[in-house]
Amino acid sequence: MLKDIVSKQKLKKEELLKSQYVDRTKEPFAKKWLDSALIKVVLGPRRAGKSVFSLLLLRDHDFMYFDFDDEVLAAEGSLSTAELMKELHSAYGHIKTILFDEIQNLPAWELFVNRLHREGYNLVLTGSNARLLSMELATHLTGRHMPIELLPFDFKEFLKGKKFEIDPEYKSLPEKHGQLLNLLDQYLSKGGFPEVVVSNLDPADYLEVLFDSLLFKDVVKRHRVKFSTQISTLGSHLVNNFASLYTLNKLMKTLNLKSVHTVAKYASYLEEAYLIFSLSRYSTKSRQRINSPKKVYVVDNGFVTAKAIQHSPDKGKLTENLVFTELVKRGLKPNLELFYYKTRNDREVDFVVKKGHLVTELIQACYESVSADVEQRETKALFEASDELKVKKLIVLTWDEKRTVKKDDATIEFIPLWEWLLERPQE
């Protein structure tokens, strides 16, 4: 049985390598570590392109490939790792580089990986569980791994997938500029999952099925959740209330769940599966950070549209969610380098960017045309926060407006969202 699986997966690998794919923004970063002794761990939600990304990363190398997310394998149950290595070498010969797909499906995978690492194998792993990135990797592969987080397409990758030529002179070319804004509107609502972008699939149907599949495979099944309806309801509720504040107590009462502990546990499972992110309020006081409500964001705007109960999701909130996911794609770690903020007058700033001990940047995301009322609301919060946090870099991301607003010695830059999305990533 195992011999057949290895053989079929080898053919699958060869077929995949022949196809054309969108180059990913993370590739240069990942390539820097490819020949190092570190274990390369590519993490992100299912269907975000981790397998293809890893295959292309290794395309100039001889490597063995095995996918632990195989249905036949799942039906058989237990797997002998000694037998697996025998069959891999039987199929590929004496090769010391291996790509293991969806490694979290192998029980005690970390012991197996550690052994191969000690034996001198160059390993690339993929996984669909954020916990691998933190607890399991930190515990079992301390100092011996390089995490590479891969989320759905960023806007540059989306444009490549749509075969739209990126040109810096959009403003002087009205036709191109209009096309770009049309594509940005599509990206805002349909998101960046590769198959949706490249194959022009119906995002609502595809992403609703994908969301439910992720919920079952990476949450209910992995954690043996007894009350699957409860966690499904929680997931749908959080997605429908994206870019909004929540507390565990309020969720418990709204959804009639047993305890705050249950809500916290279920929410952590949804985060592990890369379905949602929770963002804390920025404060130098740890007690205020812990006790303040959190904001929930969704890994991809397409999930919001697919799971939305309301007829049309709020484009202002979709813009905010898009900016959040872009900041994460640029390498910022939520609740370590990225927060939201409330001023002393309770005015909200969408994003606080922190580097080391210093807050370096404050960002507001704003979809609607900047009317006098909107401008006053957004700028007041930024100017107040700038004064309280002593930050000079202040940005309002707009749909398509570029200018500056000054007050005393502080300046706010209004930047079109498309222009900001096409900037060079921070990482």
UniProtKB/TrEMBL annotation:
A matching Pfam family:
DUF4143
**Which superkingdom?**
Bacteria
Q: Where is the DUF4143 domain?
A: 217-356
Database matches in InterPro entries: AAA_14 (IPR041682), DUF4143 (IPR025420), P-loop_NTPase (IPR027417)
According to the entry, every stretch annotated as the AAA domain falls at 39-159
Report what the protein is called: ATPase
Which organism is this protein's natural source?
A: Candidatus Magasanikbacteria bacterium GW2011_GWA2_56_11
Recite the lineage of the species: Bacteria, Candidatus Magasanikiibacteriota
